[in-house]
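quick one, two chains, predict together pls
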Amino acid sequence: METKKKTIGILGGMGPLATMDLYKKIILSTEAAGDNEHIRVYIDGNSAIPDRTAAILSGGPDPVPEMLSALRNLEACGADCVIMPCNTAHYFLPRLQEQTGLPILDMRRITAEACAGRFPGKRACLLGTKGTIAAHIYDEALKAAGVEFLTPDAGEQDELMRLIYGVVKASKPLEPETEAWHELLTSLIGRGADYFILACTELPILADHLGHPGPFVDPTLELAKAAIRFCGYKVKE
Amino acid sequence: METKKKTIGILGGMGPLATMDLYKKIILSTEAAGDNEHIRVYIDGNSAIPDRTAAILSGGPDPVPEMLSALRNLEACGADCVIMPCNTAHYFLPRLQEQTGLPILDMRRITAEACAGRFPGKRACLLGTKGTIAAHIYDEALKAAGVEFLTPDAGEQDELMRLIYGVVKASKPLEPETEAWHELLTSLIGRGADYFILACTELPILADHLGHPGPFVDPTLELAKAAIRFCGYKVKE
């Protein structure tokens, strides 16, 4: 590469496994034949960031100060861009972006464009936390890309929250949830879903293990690929 | 927790997948019921660190300046300890330790103690890069813990280097190597190995995927557990 190589900062910890999953997807999606051909990646897995859904929906503590603490560390390391492996956290992106000169790559816009490209004219089902759905975090990006979508009903949403908080974030075994996961998706297909947007970073972890044909759009993977391209590296297809 | 929570700094990138593997093992081995009960982890996945084996054996570029660059970043983030997911890199630990006040947890000592505890009186086979074996990086720690061990012969060592550099570090598919991996271990068992020390951080990635009964001691996992305990958190058994 002729120009100075660019680096990635991951504002992570929301949760830790999702942060690891994003790092893994960056590594596996980079065209590289050895250690030195990979992108330099800085991670702050800040486990002290308060829950984003609780902050949005029920007056829980503001996560922005701890997110800023991580952002400052990524700046100190010399990151050229910032990515956040938490969809709900994108609610706070404007407040973070006005505090830093580093570009924060927007997972919602990147995902919406991937949906429009891969499934033109089809109807998405947006799967996420209650915070992501109720605060309409994805709506603007999906509308801008012309993506039609439906969301889970109240019962489906409760089941999704159980899988996210009671299983993945609680580091419980995933396999016993295979039937619950398949039932949930079947119910959503019955209501008109043509494909699924896994718009909570814990969900690709479930989906990668529990074998359902989907089809899925994985925002973590799309964000990884966008960050690789931002840094001037080649995506391995 | 009553006292201030301690954090971990991972001096990584040697290689990236091994760094991801260590982070994953820290997360999965921490007793935690939600995001906020995990340890704050800082990672510098510095892909610019020159190859350690080449530096030790064939006059390749000194990796210490780039390792120090990562160490300074981890200091700037506020890490309370440093861990390095690269066994060969431990050759340079004394030079790094004299440049920082942060404790660098020594994977070799931690691994040797795990071996002595789990397999008293048995003979280990030490698997690692040519750099790790030829520079006797583990020998002192194993002797101090009273662990008897053998090392691969020249042909076995070449095959091991092919698996490490030609497969894992090259991000090639692992499954086609199942037979090669099993043959290598069978040959070493024939020469008197009772168990295997996976003393290159790319090897647990192979071993986790290619299903051989071992038994194995995984220095990455032992290092993860030691770092969890250093920070005052509970290891999930």
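The radius of gyration of chain B is 17 Å.
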